[in-house]
From TrEMBL:
Gene Ontology molecular function, alphabetical: ATP binding; glycerate kinase activity
Annotated protein name in UniProt: Glycerate kinase
MOFRL-associated domain span: 23-236
Organism from which the protein derives: Grus japonensis
Enzyme Commission designation: 2.7.1.31
Keywords: ATP-binding, Kinase, Nucleotide-binding, Transferase
Family in the record: Belongs to the glycerate kinase type-2 family.
EC class name: transferase
Keyword Kinase: yes
């Protein structure tokens, strides 16, 4: 994605070109980065920048270089004798001493820049844990404990990162302020619904749209306000001790070079190239995984009804009513369901249909099994389709072939080596023939174990680390299997 967005134009005064915007490289070009996908971004950037790059520092997840090396993904690794220093840390996405060391090094580099320098900042998901910079006297351990407790109490990423920004020297625009007066150009892979610049990796180069009040409200919401460490009380009660620097961000340009929306648009182009009539439902799918599975099943049923010429009848009306209720329950931001359903009406059985969507579901873990939200979603869709078919007491209206895929774009899904999984209408029956009870696996959140066993693991989606991280993607393929 970075190679598509970034070019360097040489000459008397080199220009960094990013998605049509030009930034003069007046003197020296520096690079910093932090996030799960930043190593691959830095490898691409290094190739483009060549000798123009003076120095770089990137903070990446512990062990990522070794795992990419083992996977033979050389294009995601820096060249030998690279000018970019790599610091690995934040094991299990939690800030640690190594990540703190890297954050200090990045802070020192930024503070030393002049008005003639250009700082390229590479940001991706996982960046918050990889750029810890607690405002003194807050200790790293205190900040880590606070954010871990918030997460365990169900705080959304937006809430987590508002608290992180308030307690950080570098988040919430702090890095950009420290880099002043250098030109700052941030290249961002968004892993947050809606691509909010000041929430992605806690917005180190974006003006924060939140206040200490917002932070206090979040801490109160999760019953944390009255047992905070003294250091956190001190910071919250005094005006944030950010370095004196201009409040304006005219020296900063934040550019999203990868997002779920961009990924879905590319997937749409690919699907249409394969002959599918393709629609994008949303890049903001959110909510409990079971409810989202029901939403997808109802959508699939509506397409099958349409193929059978029953879409405009009472059955179709019933399904559309269910969809409106589910979308309202999930609270999917920006989804215009009426417009989507209107577009769906235009699809007939003469062409196979592809429905694309993306975002991040939530899974309330009840069991002790192994899995991820994408594998769980695929298994739940398989079960929902089976139940809908049983309720229809026949095969789906109009005899359709259905395939559902859900995958994490970073190539990982939960603590497994799978990125996600694929299911079909026949999954539950075929599993039963192998003695596998889908409901039992789901009740134990054990989707990985199921897909590893079912049909020799062929329904597991295993991509390896992809070098990007723009949340999760779902693809639904529906084909009429007989002339209607
Ligand atoms: N056994 C399981 N079954 C279903 N979902 C699980 C299971 N174990 C963990 N999860 C879910 O996986 C999610 C963690 O996924 P993952 O490790 O891919 O990190 P992530 O949240 O996607 O991080 P990033 O956004 O940086 O990639 C958690 O939200 C958790 O609910
Ligand atoms: O690092 C983070 O804050 C999350 O991945 C959201 O960007």
């Amino acid at each position: 994605m970075l190679k598509r967005a970034v070019k360097l134009q040489g000459g008397e005064c080199p220009q960094l070109l990013v998605k049509g915007q030009a930034f003069p490289v007046k003197r020296d070009l520096y690079l910093v980065g932090f996030g799960k996908a930043v190593l691959g971004m830095a490898a691409a950037a290094e190739e483009i920048l060549g000798d123009h790059l003076i120095q770089g520092i990137i903070n990446v997840p512990l062990g990522i270089q070794e795992s990419l090396q083992r996977a033979g993904m050389q294009e995601m690794l820096l060249k030998p004798r690279s000018k970019i220093q790599v610091i690995e840390g934040a094991k299990n996405n939690l800030p640690d001493a190594e990540a703190l060391k890297g954050a200090v090094a990045i802070q020192e580099l930024a503070e030393g820049l002049t008005a003639d320098d250009l700082l390229l900042v590479l940001i991706s998901g996982g960046g918050s844990a990889l750029l810890p910079a607690p405002i003194p006297p807050i200790l790293l351990k205190e900040k880590e404990e606070l954010t871990k407790t918030l997460a365990s109490r169900g705080a959304a990423i937006q809430e987590l990162n508002i608290v992180r920004k308030t307690l950080s020297l570098l988040k919430g625009g702090g890095l950009a302020r420290l880099a002043y007066p250098a030109q700052v150009v941030s290249l961002i892979l968004s892993d947050v619904i809606g691509d909010p610049l000041d929430i992605i990796a806690s917005g180190p180069t974006a003006a924060s749209s939140h206040s200490v009040q917002d932070c206090l409200q979040i801490l109160a919401k999760y019953n944390l306000l009255h047992n905070l460490p003294q250091s956190v009380e001190t910071v919250l009660s005094s005006s944030p001790t950010k370095p004196n620097a201009p409040e304006d961000y005219s020296h900063v340009c934040n550019i999203i070079i990868g997002s779920n929306t961009l990924a879905l648009e590319e997937a749409k182009r690919q699907a249409e190239g394969l002959g599918y009539a393709t629609l994008i439902l949303s890049a903001a799918i959110c909510g409990e995984v079971g409810c989202v599975a029901t939403l997808y099943c109802q959508l699939i049923w509506l397409v099958c009804l349409g193929f059978a010429g029953l879409g405009e009848g009472p059955l179709g009306d019933e399904v559309r009513g269910n969809l409106r209720q589910l979308v309202a329950e999930l609270g999917i931001p920006g989804l215009n369901l009426a417009k989507f359903l209107q577009a769906l009406r235009g699809l007939g059985p003469e062409r196979p249909v592809c429905i694309l969507a993306g975002g991040e579901t939530t899974v309330q873990l009840q069991g002790t099994g192994k899995g991820g939200r994408n594998q769980e979603l695929a298994l739940r869709v398989g079960l929902e389709l089976h139940r809908a078919q049983a309720a229809e007491v026949s095969s789906p209206p109009g005899r359709c072939e259905i395939v559902f895929l859900s995958g994490g774009t970073d190539g990982q899904d939960g603590p497994t080596e799978a990125a996600g999984a694929v299911c079909s209408l026949e999954l539950v029956d075929e599993a039963l023939q192998e003695g596998l009870d889908v409901e039992a696996f789901l009740s134990n959140n054990d989707s990985y174990t199921f897909f590893s066993q079912f049909q020799g693991g062929h329904h597991l989606l295993v991509t390896g680390l992809t070098g990007t991280n723009v949340m999760d993607i779902q693809a639904i393929l529906i084909r009429a299997t007989e002339r209607l």
